[in-house]
Amino acid sequence: MKYILLIGDGMGDFPLKELDGRTPLEVATIPGLDFLARHGEIGLVQTVPQGMPPGSDVANMSLLGYPPEKKYTGRGPIEAASLGIPMRPEDVAFRCNLVTLKRVGQNLIMEDYSAGHISTEEARILIEDLNRELADEKLELFCGKSYRHILLWRGGPEGLRTVPPHDLLGKNIYHAWQAYREEPLLRNFLMRAIRILEKHPLNQKRIAEGKPPANALWPWGQGRMPLLEPFSQKWGLTGAVVAAVDLVKGLGRLAKLEVIEVEGATGYLDTNYEGKALAALEALESRDFVLVHVEAPDEASHQGDVDLKIKAIQDFDRYVVRTVIEEAAARFEAYRILAATDHLTPIPLRTHSSKPVPFVLFDSRSGEERRAEGFSERTAQASGLFIPDGQSLMSRFLEREPRLPEEA
Description:
Layout: E1 2-8, H1 24-27, H2 31-39, E2 41-45, H3 56-63, H4 68-71, H5 75-82, E3 92-104, E4 107-112, H6 120-134, E5 139-145, E6 148-153, H7 174-181, H8 184-199, H9 201-208, E7 216-223, H10 231-235, E8 239-242, H11 246-254, E9 258-260, H12 273-284, E10 289-294, H13 296-302, H14 306-331, E11 335-340, E12 357-363, H15 377-382, E13 386-387, H16 390-398
Parallel strand pairs: 1-10, 1-11, 2-13, 8-9, 8-10
Antiparallel strand pairs: 2-12, 3-4, 3-6, 3-7, 5-6, 11-12
């Protein structure tokens, strides 16, 4: 049996006025997901435990079958694991965005959490120049992809109440900035970074071209390195991860899954969808399980762009879901497909929600049509099937219970 987990990050939404009370999933043309829903088992799953932040880190850890309430320490160390950054037990890693701040009257506003989705090539120049001026034995930057980077604080504290920059879009950053004022070393680092970035030739060039400048760093999601038992020990299966973003690749590395790199996988709307699907199927030839993660719907949601979100969902369906359905049928005798969104990213909020999310579970051994409705939040809720957590859903998907540590 082969197991394929497909995650469309942030696909879920609320009913929208501009869509006549429908969600982007209900409006999008998604024959692949609809086929799975009509021939499979559809329902809702609670990926974000009560009281925990509804981020992709928590939700994807949950979908991978690891309970975040026991394993989660922060987003930063997960992404640090993806980048291979060595961390001691006492070190703290922050996810660190390059952002665009804008002065509006007396207020400083978070204009763009991604500095206009700055390219990795441009970001590397800025990060290297900042390190040259600012890095020391305590604080150091590590370059990731696009706007997503890591700030490592060796021997740093854990207790700061940082705010994700995508939660501050269009808002005054004053109160969120107070977290950095609690730690003079960090505040000084960030203030010096702003002064360097504002004058940097690359940013001057971006402004001249009408692009948002990457004029500040925004660290958040900090924590110490988590410990996950290997996926092969927990579930008794070999596996791999296909993703563009360091968050999901980091979860894969921590779970000792092979991380498959795909040329053209960007973590944005221009990603190589089909290449990721084909790479996953190839990896599955010699393994039992594969996870394919696509970030694009979430990025469109953060931008508040309904049309872009619908397009991202349709591209996920056309180039990932349908490719997997067609190719799996030709390659494997028996397989199961679990398709889900990790969390809702409602267009009106432009950030994440902790409400339950839709999933569909398809088994090639029972292909008869079960229902007429397709895949959406509404049909998932109407099914009456509710799974309380990601580990329970993974157990249902893999048709096995997780092994206790002493059994592994």
